[in-house]
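New to this. Explain the following:
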Amino acid sequence: MDNISVTTDHLFSGRPQDTRGRLPKELRTYDLLDQLCIPYERLDHSAAFTIEDCHGADRLLGIDICKNLFLRNAQKTSFYLLMMPGDKKFRTALLSRQIGSARLSFGEPQYMEEFLDITPGSLSVLGLMNDTQGRVRLLIDEDVIKGREFIGCHPCVNTSSLKIQTRDILEKFLPHVEHPYTLVRL
């Protein structure tokens, strides 16, 4: 594997049978996916902190894992989760113009944890289930959903990666957690 150690090259369907050592936020993620009847494949691995760390997992899952960025405006009053292809460069000025924000910076870890119950390295669209106050606006680069049947993401922890149908995220998960998305072009 590239930069992560995969505990097995076996993909699992659904939640882990043995939940010992799993964090409650991870188990809540599986509970919600099951409640919404969203099937997923799971790969367990050592902690992956960057998109580069995920390259081995994405090959085993047969997908491209999304790069997720937690952003904020200069006043720290607007927060964003940006999903984009892992191989694409992030251009702050281009995104700022599209969403009408003067200047974007990376959001501090304390806001990520407060709003999404996620720590750096675990950022995922699935963390929006924890944003019950709607503090984080979801931005999705058009290339993430254009022609891609599956999305790869973490279940709110960076020791597992999931393969989920794109339409299930867009049509079931996001409406349930009451987070519409804004399509952007980077």
User: Anything to note?
Assistant: The longest helix spans residues 24-35. Residues 1-6 have pLDDT under 50 and may be disordered.
